[in-house]
Amino acid sequence: MVTDMLTLLPSHGTDEAGMARMIARLVEGQMVQGAGATGGPGDGERGLVAEMLNFAVVASQRLADQQARIAQLESLVMTDELTGIGNRRAFEAHLDRALAAARRHGTDGVIGYFDLNGFKAVNDTFSHNAGDRLLCHVAEVLRDGVRVEDFAGRIGGDEFVVVMAPATPGGAARRLRTLQARIDRLRIPWADTWLGISTSLGIEPLDPKRSADETVAAADRRMYAEKRAVSPAQPAVAAVGGWPR
């Protein structure tokens, strides 16, 4: 009977309250029928109640498994596969929430747009595996350097974003520059040398009067302005055997 009752569950699941109401109606109906025939619940009715409770346990486990699977799929959709931090979809959702909070409560915040200078040279010179290793280290610096309420994500090949909100523009800018310095100081062992890279950073305050797209575009422009200002003598890729191991 448990198997038969499980077929009553909708294919997309139901909530625990709905399931409890369904079981209660089934039990009540069977008990009323039993009471009408014998004057009170007997062994058959007690057995039915036990079977219903077993059904509730099995159905609850099925729902829990389904909810866990949905949560896992949602996490995959919002996570960058290579680095494990948020992807573009997650960034857009977080930025929308941050701007909505700014409009409702007047809170401040900042977006930081990071771009790795000359990243293509890493792939071309040392292989895509080396480039992937570098991207993962950059992601680790950003993930470990933000607060729980902040967001760090990768939105393109070598483009990363950080949303700090709520935060004062001055304080957030200082933290973003600290993260930039940490990335610039990265020294990653690869083969018989060390890899390093510099970054360009665009910092833009969250303006509740602007859309998410306008905010990102403004941060992107600031990032490219900084990139153009980088001295040509500054190496984009540092692979110097003299760095200490």
UniProtKB/TrEMBL annotation:
Occurrences of domain GGDEF (ranges): 107-242
Gene Ontology molecular function: diguanylate cyclase activity
Coiled coil: none
Pfam family for this entry, one: GGDEF
Gene3D superfamilies on file: 3.30.70.270
Catalysed reactions, semicolon-separated: 2 GTP = 3',3'-c-di-GMP + 2 diphosphate
The EC number(s) this enzyme carries: 2.7.7.65
NCBIfam families, A to Z: GGDEF
Name the UniProt record assigns to this protein: diguanylate cyclase
